[in-house]
Amino acid sequence: MKINTDSQKIEKILTHGVKEIIVKNHLEKQLKSGRNLRVKFGIDPTAPDIHLGHSVPLRKLKQFQELGHQIILIIGDFTAQIGDPSERKETRKPLTAEEIKKNMKGYLKQADKIINLDKTEVIYNSEWFAKDNAKIIFKLARAGSIQQILHRTDFQKRLQKNQDITLLETLYPLLQGYDSVMVKADVEIGGTDQLFNLLMGRKVQRFYEMPEQDILTTSLLEGLDGIKKMSKSAGNYIAVNETPNKMFEKIMRLPDNLIAKYFLLCTDKSKKEIQKIKTDMERSKLNPRDVKARLAHEIVALYHGKIAAQKAEKEFNQIFKEKKLPSEIPLIKIAAKNINILDLLTKTKLASSKAEAKRLIEQKGVKINNEIQEDWRKNIPIKNGMIIQSGKRRFAKIIQ
Prior knowledge:
This protein is of the alpha/beta class. The chain folds into three domains: about 5-220, Rossmann fold; about 245-320, Orthogonal Bundle (Tyrosyl-Transfer RNA Synthetase); about 330-400, Roll (Structural Genomics Hypothetical 15.5 Kd Protein In mrcA-pckA Intergenic Region, Chain A). About 45% of the residues lie in helices and about 15% in strands. The chain contains 18 helices and 13 strands. The protein has helices at about 5-15, 25-35, 50-65, 95-105, 105-110, 125-130, 135-140, 145-150, 155-160, 165-185, 195-205, 245-250, 260-265, 270-280, 290-305, 305-320, 340-345, 355-360; strands at about 20, 40-45, 70-75, 120-125, 185-190, 215-220, 330-335, 340, 365-370, 370, 380, 385-390, 395-400. Helix 10 packs across helix 11. The longest helix has 17 residues, at about 165-185. The radius of gyration is 24 Å and the shape is globular. The mean pLDDT is about 85.
């Protein structure tokens, strides 16, 4: 396939959502040369979902792919057993091979929503680490020094707090760097939190007497709380395989100050269009709620199609603006004739525990057939078709 050297598209790769490039002049020259670059992005299957935070580097990977470059998706099924220590305040809990296998099940299907898997090299790093791993690690250990590894900011913070850093964690950047050696990466993409690991990739390639990869870091995406970066461990993420209704509703919960950033990193809007949206909101020409609905519509359409986005928006407005019931409510079978309200909420999964159920009732967040419930000791007579609501978003319909 012929490599596209269109200057505008190259400029987009180098600037859109990009935080830092090492070495920018070299990468730009490579892109303009027409040479087919090998562009790598790695992801560890530490949980079953790929989320919008992952989509940022994946979308950058897609831009390289659209110009005809060879993109490489590394699934870190081996390195996930160690866990990336980047920005961790404590050692990750080790994952078993079975947990990793379970997490990987839907990974490629989710990634295919963003990149073209038919034109992607998908490689599992257990292919090399599972064979002769001791021999590899013995050699790799000479590629970096303890001083360099421990100098990273996240390790320094843990050392100051007298928290353990395992020897396995210190090896992680070297293992990630070895992936770059094995796939002969010309470019590696990652979030800004990955910079240390990406730089180590250059060092490891140099150790193996290979040309050093260029590095492109993308901006980190804050999650639903608007503070922490989107992550599976923080539970503040929007998965790319969320249902259209759930994805739309989650995006509508974002803080207003993240609207422009989400447009930039998660949609195909141009910088010029995004700047106009931002300016119009600042001048009160646009209501942030309406702009957020546009954002939600665009993101849902990217992953589920335009019709699904229209239906999701209609459903959201029906529940949150018109205060009507959802079109589809989960059906829960309850055989008992009477049941304590706390048990009812946990059995219908409208509360994760009796403690949460009690708290919701005390906060007047529970309704039965649209009547607010205030007594957590109450026994509820079960009737076929009764509607239970927990908070603004969770519903269940009782059948007998």
